[in-house]
Amino acid sequence: MASGMPRNFVNYTLSQREIDDFIAAATDGNKAVVAGFIKKYPDAVDERDHYNRTALMWAGRYGRWDIVELLLENGADMGAKDYAGWTTLIHAAACGNEITVEFLLEKGALIDGEDTAGKTALTYARERCKADMVALLEQWPDTKKRRLLAEQKARELRETDFSHGLKKSIPRPRPFKLPQPKQRGTKP
Question: Is 152 inside any structural domain?
Fold first, then answer.
């Protein structure tokens, strides 16, 4: 690569057909084709399809952890998001691929990464009734640590006495009374 060129400068032209074939090979778990593509186009591991998904996302979605490993070793972006904001971890968790999820977490995937709807991998695992996946994600050290911190903060808030000065600084609303209907036929 010429000096002065950015690291991500790509000096090749791929057709969408070639990209789709590469992504299909990753989806199908065809390691030889994926490895051959990476050897021929080393900077193209993060090429995207019409859903804006990478080969890594498709491999994670279908539980092809060996392909996931190969792509990550060759510089694939684990934090990349598709049009819906899904990462590889969300794809793998939503589809119940525990081995792939555990592998991604060990490699440093963000467990609390959110999509465009504000949902995480754990949210999708719960929504899709993936009990084993929920257990894995909840017991992962980062998740457990955050949950314990949240419980500790909630406990501290419950134990804190906010009554001092509260009455003076925030006026209490007056109770609202509905007007009584007038009775007909009676004189005031």
Answer: no
